[in-house]
């Protein structure tokens, strides 16, 4: 389960998506995620599905590698869908058994919310799988550069976000090693009720926190040893420059956003199933 988390990992390839400017991928991902919450009909989600599959195909990242990142959120996904299904009133009553009611509005909301969560994880994973941590740092810093006029430490913020993303797979790997070590010593992490399972996690969380603080201290010492003093006056070995392919990518994303927004919001959804 832990190894299935793909956010923060990088998949090396020579695809066109990998070669795009990181600013293009960050902005495009944000626009895609925002568009998911503007649709009112199933046609909008159909266009979002086609666009996502198109990007996955262009990235040359195995589809199974992206889908397995959904396994850790299955429980959260199920809880969200069930709550929206039974607790959303409105519309025609489809099912009634005791206190449980399923309405047309509840069914529509549950389906849409499930699709949004799935595509949110897949879209975010695709961005991190095709962008190195250094590229993410440079892209975020350039996008937030106007905030420097307000004395906002843009470089430090971008650095912290990049380090946090980079540490996700490292800490997951460390957690997996600790769990296997505890199981080899006879620890029972599966049986028992919720309270007993929570207590069984203590021998895992304590060494994990110790390891995390040790890694953070080592990183800080390494940065000080290399005379790191923040972003002021620093130059880039590979400065970010927009190319023609980046402008074409912006055009494709804007065309998708406009088309999906208009089709998914203003076409009467009564003619669709949901």
TrEMBL record:
Compartments (UniProt record): Cell membrane
CDD domains given in the database record: EcfT
InterPro entries linked to this entry: ABC/ECF_trnsptr_transmembrane, EcfT
Membrane-spanning parts: 30-53, 65-87, 107-129, 248-267
Signal peptide residues on this chain, from the entry's feature table: none
Keyword Mitochondrion: no
Highest taxon in the source lineage: Bacteria
Main location class: membrane
Record-linked Pfam families: CbiQ
Membrane topology: Multi-pass membrane protein
Function: Transmembrane (T) component of an energy-coupling factor (ECF) ABC-transporter complex. Unlike classic ABC transporters this ECF transporter provides the energy necessary to transport a number of different substrates.
Subunit structure as annotated in this protein's UniProt entry: Forms a stable energy-coupling factor (ECF) transporter complex composed of 2 membrane-embedded substrate-binding proteins (S component), 2 ATP-binding proteins (A component) and 2 transmembrane proteins (T component).
Family in the record: Belongs to the energy-coupling factor EcfT family.
Protein name (record): Energy-coupling factor transporter transmembrane protein EcfT
Organism name: Bariatricus massiliensis
Source lineage: Bacteria, Bacillati, Bacillota, Clostridia, Lachnospirales
């Amino acid at each position: 389960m832990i190894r299935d988390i793909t956010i923060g990992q990088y998949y090396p390839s020579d695809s066109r998506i990998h070669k795009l400017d990181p600013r293009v991928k960050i902005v495009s991902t944000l626009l895609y995620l925002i568009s998911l919450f503007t649709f009112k009909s199933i046609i909008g989600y159909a266009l979002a599905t086609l666009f996502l599959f198109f990007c996955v195909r262009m990235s040359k990242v195995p589809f199974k590698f992206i889908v397995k990142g959904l396994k850790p959120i299955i429980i959260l996904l199920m809880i969200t869908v069930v709550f929206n299904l039974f607790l959303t009133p409105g519309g025609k009553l489809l099912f009634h058994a005791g206190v449980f009611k399923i309405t047309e509005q509840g069914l529509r909301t549950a389906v849409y919310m499930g699709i949004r969560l799935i595509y949110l994880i897949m879209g975010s994973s695709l961005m991190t799988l095709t962008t190195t941590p250094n590229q993410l740092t440079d892209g975020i810093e350039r996008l937030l550069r106007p905030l420097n006029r307000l004395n906002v430490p843009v470089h430090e913020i971008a650095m912290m976000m990049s380090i946090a993303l980079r540490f996700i797979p490292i800490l997951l790997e460390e957690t997996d090693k600790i769990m296997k070590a505890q199981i080899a010593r006879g620890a029972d992490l599966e049986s028992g009720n919720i309270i007993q399972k929570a207590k069984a996690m203590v021998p895992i969380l304590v060494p994990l926190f110790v390891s995390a603080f040790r890694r953070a201290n080592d990183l800080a010492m390494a940065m000080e040893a290399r005379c790191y003093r923040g972003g002021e006056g620093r130059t880039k070995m590979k400065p970010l420059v927009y190319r023609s392919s980046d402008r074409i990518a912006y055009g494709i994303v804007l065309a998708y956003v406009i088309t999906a927004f208009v089709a998914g919001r203003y076409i009467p959804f009564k003619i669709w199933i949901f």
